[in-house]
Amino acid sequence: MKKFFSSSNLRFLLGFFLILFFIVIGFFIQDVLGYHVIALLLLLCVSILAMFLRIIPLLILAIISAISLNFFFITPRYTFRIYSAEDFLLFLVYFLIALVNAVLTNKIRNYEEKQQQEKEKTKIIQLYETLLNSLSHELRTPIATIVGSIDTIRDRSYKLPEADKEELLTEIQHASIRLNREVENLLNMSRLESGVIQPKLDWIDFNEVVYRTFREFEDASIQERLFFYPDTKNPPVKTDGGFLEIILKNLIHNAIKHNDASTNVIVSNMINEEDLIFKVSDNGKGFPTAAIDQVFQKFYKIENTTGGTGIGLSLVKGFVESLNGSISLKNNKTSGAEFTVKIPVIVSDIKS
Prior knowledge:
It is built from ten helices and eight strands. The chain has helices at 7-33, 35-49, 55-73, 85-138, 140-155, 162-194, 206-215, 220-223, 241-257, 312-322; strands at 202-204, 226-229, 237-239, 265-271, 275-282, 326-331, 337-344, 346-347.
């Protein structure tokens, strides 16, 4: 039953009823307009259907329309006989035009689909080349740091001062965190696109989500530059707190990574009756105007920037949209950039 009501079958049925509609209309107006006009109307109908149907169902409907023209409109009516050479020529020309129109339109559509597939294939290849180029740096660098530091500690452990050992261990830790972040982003992007990961709504305290996200940045120099200005009302809201953490973490990391060490990152929020709205802003260098509309595209990287796979902000957009929300970006009037995230939530009457 489901197979019968597939989109192709439905289009065929709609096409059949459209031809039937023209036949019924023509039946009542044929004495006024004549069957030559009815033939043009049916031919117009077949031409319209050619834009939506595949070749086999379209040919079937073209044949049905030609037979209907002969049976209902060409004299003598209600028979398949044609006595007049003029009427026979009309029927033949109509039949040939309907068939040729069906075949040519189908060929044009197939050509356009092939061209579109080629464009999409080329785009996918370019995207994956970009991804592989990014990964070759973003994954190789922390791995090389980890391997090099471990080799140094192992080969020269008896000569290394404790301070140098501690420095190498710190480098291993930072490289591990960087490697884990990139792999985590790739896995999250894959899960999000495949539909494996779905939001799990629960009551959360947005303040706690922000502070928990801040604590994930273990570097004290980074934590000193993170500020949060919460909504004073701050009622509990029902949404996915894990998704919010991923969104916040990637926005904060983006601001820290692409600005100098003096840049501060500010998170602020407000909660109204239907929405959780929070902003992540910084006082850094901001975004090039031409890049603002493209930064959420997968694998997009701003020119003359180093590092990054170009999936952080596209991942953010994906998680925001999975919560039925929206995200926007603008440059501040003075300096830096501001991301605004708006997510529909259920707001509790209980104040936290």
